[in-house]
TrEMBL record:
Species: Rhizobium metallidurans
Protein name per Swiss-Prot or TrEMBL: Flagellar hook-basal body complex protein FliE
InterPro entries: FliE
Gene assigned in the entry: fliE
GO cellular component: bacterial-type flagellum basal body
Compartment list: Bacterial flagellum basal body
Length: 108
């Protein structure tokens, strides 16, 4: 299911990119931004900010769809991208919680 979401969200991303090399993956750009930032906290902060902006954008696009100023495809693309962002945030949260539980179980 996540693979189908990735393919749908990539359609909305590539629609506006005419002269950009699409051989680069989103993970490599995330890794590049991680090396540019100074700390892990700033990377997580940037990721959280981007997630919130994605969800707000989907909400705004939904309102535009209700008003009739956005097409159904634009609304669906924005909502699917927000859903993927939310699933990613949940997965990261689960990994952080499990890592914390592993650390607390360690014997000193």
């Amino acid at each position: 299911m996540i693979n189908s979401i990735n393919s749908l969200s990539s359609l909305s991303i590539t629609r506006d990119l005419s002269g950009v090399d699409l051989g680069k993956s989103q993970a490599s750009s995330s890794a590049q931004s991680a090396t540019n930032d100074a700390s892990f906290a700033s990377v997580l902060g940037n990721a959280a900010t981007n997630a919130v902006n994605s969800i707000k954008g989907a909400e705004n696009m939904s309102f535009q769809g209700i008003n009739g100023t956005a097409t159904t495809r634009e609304v669906v693309d924005a909502v699917m991208q927000a859903q993927q962002t939310l699933q990613t945030a949940i997965a990261i949260r689960d990994k952080v919680v499990s890592a914390f539980l592993e650390v607390t179980k360690m014997q000193m």
